[in-house]
Amino acid sequence: MRPNTMTALEKSEPREGLWQVQAPVPEIGPDDVLIKVNKTGICGTDIHIWKWDEWAAHTVPVPLITGHEFAGEIVEIGRDVKGLDIGQRCSGEGHLIGTESRQSRAGKFHLDPGTRGIGVNVQGAFAQYLRLPAFNVVPLPDDIPDEIGAILDPLGNAVHTALSFDLLGEDVLITGAGPIGIMAAAVAKHAGARHVVITDINPDRLELAAHVVPAVRPVNVAQEELRDVIAELKMKQGFDVGLEMSGSQAALDQMVEALVMGGKIALLGIPPGKSPVDWSRIVFKAITIKGVYGREMFETWYKMIAMLQNGLDVSRVITHRFPVAEFEKGFRAMKSGRSGKVVLDWT
Ligand code: ZN
Questions:
Q1: Ligand 1 centroid from CA 262, angstroms
Q2: Nearest-CA neighbor of 98 among 83, 90, 88, 108?
Q3: CB 317 within 8 A of CB 183
Q4: Is 48 considered catalytic here?
């Protein structure tokens, strides 16, 4: 019944690309489950690994099966696992945490400094089978399809960032209209924000943002000034909350400028290196800044599943679907900068 080998996408050599290989099906330990993977999402992280940039070369061991966004079903259960059944559909948290650190022992698992990532530090989800600690499994309700299950990891980034501050009745600026920025816009509207404005300089992404979240106001900052948009929307001073999703220095500057006194910023975008910040502006505007990493375990997962069941719709952010045999097309779509989420089918 259990096959010996499986198809997987592997970083086999320390250079550009990923390779489809036959790999052994993982053996599970007493606290693990084996998941038969049905769908996976391609992440920006996977593009860094594909390109083998400096970060990837310093972080990712070779060979490694990559990928961390997945949905599937449990096919094997370790002997000490309780509360999960064979056949349970699931997604899962790809950050593997320890239990020794102060943060973990305080229940703040997402702040464990020893976190390792599947598909980045340990064997990942771009495979027909994935070993995962049972602790990391997130069961999927019947009304959430595998395709959405496969993008809960990045949706979780969006939810974690968007829910960093109270959004009810607030005006929200999102800089960066990649898939996570777009999903954050959907979450902000769902959470009761009044105006949600999303900026980028890529017209394809702004078009996708408007397609996924019709209530959002897309702004191409290469052509339009935020201060004109603030006036158009009849906002008195500016935005109450900023969600920075681009890693762009210019975007952060624009955000600080467009925020009200006492505004709040959640930062998810990763700048390419050290970048100059006008700190005096931030001090004099009394701005609160929060760095966001990953998803809260497992509060973010709880909230996002509840919101999906309560009408949050991010399905249109998935723009491309390929069988795994055509994974190269999927990566090409991602690298073009014109796609939303790309989902690979492993069934
Ligand atoms: Zn990801």
A1: 31
A2: 108
A3: yes
A4: yes
Q: How are strands ordered across the β-sheet holding 217-220? A: 217-220, 196-200, 172-175, 239-244, 259-267, 288-291
Q: What angle do CA 317, 268, 337 make, to 5 degrees?
A: 45
What digits encode the pLDDT tens for the residues 198-248? Answer: 999 999 999 999 999 999 999 999 999 999 999 999 999 999 999 999 999
Distance 61 CA to ligand 1 centre (A): 18
CB 239 within 8 A of CB 175: no
Please list the residues that pair with 173 across neighbouring strands: 197, 242
Q: Using the mean position of ligand 1's atoms as its centre, give its distance from the Cα of residue 156 in Å.
A: 9
Helix (H, G, I), strand (E, B) or coil at 231: helix
Query: Which residues in the chain land under pLDDT 70?
Result: 1
Question: 286: left (phi > 0), else alpha (psi -120 to 50), else beta?
Answer: left
Q: Which of 48, 59, 211, 319 is catalytic?
A: 48
Under 8 Å CB-to-CB from 263, ≥6 apart: which residues?
238, 239, 240, 241, 242, 285, 287, 288
CA 155 to ligand 1 center in whole angstroms: 9
- How far, in Å, CA of 218 to CA of 195, rounded? 11
CA dist 1 → 48, 73, 75, 132 (Å): 36, 15, 10, 20
pLDDT 10s digits, 53-74? 999 999 999 999 999 999 999 9
Could you say which of 45, 115, 199, 300 is catalytic? Answer: 45
Please tell me the distance between residue 194's alpha carbon and the centre of ligand 1 in angstroms.
28
Q: Give the separation between CA 57 and CA 40, rounded to whole angstroms.
A: 23
211 catalytically annotated: no
